[in-house]
Every structure is written in structure tokens, then in C-alpha cells.
Amino acid sequence: MQDISLHLLDIIENSVRAEARTIKVRVVNNISKNRLRIIVEDDGTGMDAHTLERAQDPFYTSKEERVKKVGLGIPLFKQNAELVGGSFKMASEPGFGTVLTVDFTLDHIDRMPLGNLKDTLLGSIIGHPEVDFFIHLIYRDRATEQCFHFDTKAIREELGDIPLTYPDVIEYIDQSLLEGIQNTNMEDV
User: Phi/psi at 49 (nearest 5 deg)?
Assistant: First the structure.
């Protein structure tokens, strides 16, 4: 994968396959700590300790339809973080979902770019309108902290019978995500 947003897309798709009804995505660009942190938390089926360990093995997949014989998404995400002095942590419990926390060293020369975060999030929201997405973007440096919060559940409640996939709603979500990314300085990460 060429950028972090593609890894994020893969993790979100894993959450959807695990029957998550709620997915929380946090991206923290912490300049003062020289860290980019990605946290994805879901309320899906979760994994036992054995499956959790195997999920980090590139030759394991839990997909019912074994179109491919390996599941490289999680192992590659882990490898890309660790190669630049970052870390990877995954916690899960059956019936309670999964939390994935990945740290990247911001100024490492080999750190992959964040990529097109807006399109990744928009595609996930529109592609899975039945899932509640809570998105938190945070930018921190020594002097400031800027935050953006986006909640599809609140939007869905406000819209009533109008679906998230309605063209005007898609445009609103797209514009909101763009402004949030710009206001939290995520476009240049």
C-alpha cells in the first residue's frame, strides 16, 4: 500500500466484515511528540487471543470466500509503522469489538504519507451507510490544538428518512470532511 489512508480503508473494511455497527476513527497529528497516531475502534464480533495473534500473520485470512490465500492488510500496516520507529497494537475480545492503535514517527524519511484521508473516509461512509462512523481529527503542536469531530449517527437523526447516499448529503459530507481536514492540518501529513 502506498499511503496510510489505504491501510485505514482496509482496517475499516475488516471492521465492517466483523459486523461492526459503530466504527470510531481517530487521527492525531502530534507535532510536539513527533507522532502520527491512527486509532480504529469497532463494536464488531471481536477476536479471541489466538485469532488476534494470527491476524498479524501475513499467511492467515478469516475471509469466508478465500479469493486470496493471504491477508496482508494488518501485517503490512504493522510493518510500515515499525519500519519508521512507530508501533502497532491491536486489542480485541469476542463480542466486544477490536481496537487498533498505530503510531508513525512523523519526521522519519521513510514514513509513508497520510494520503487522501477525505476520500477514504467519504467512501467508507457512503459505502456503508448502515454503519455509524465517529471521526475525530486532532492536530497538536506546542502552542495549539485543533479538533474536528464528525458523527454520521447525528447526521442520520437530523435527516430522518433522507439517506446518507442522497447526492446533496454526499456533497455535505464531502465538504465537511474537507474543511475538517484542512482545519486540522491533515492534508500535508
Answer: -60, -40
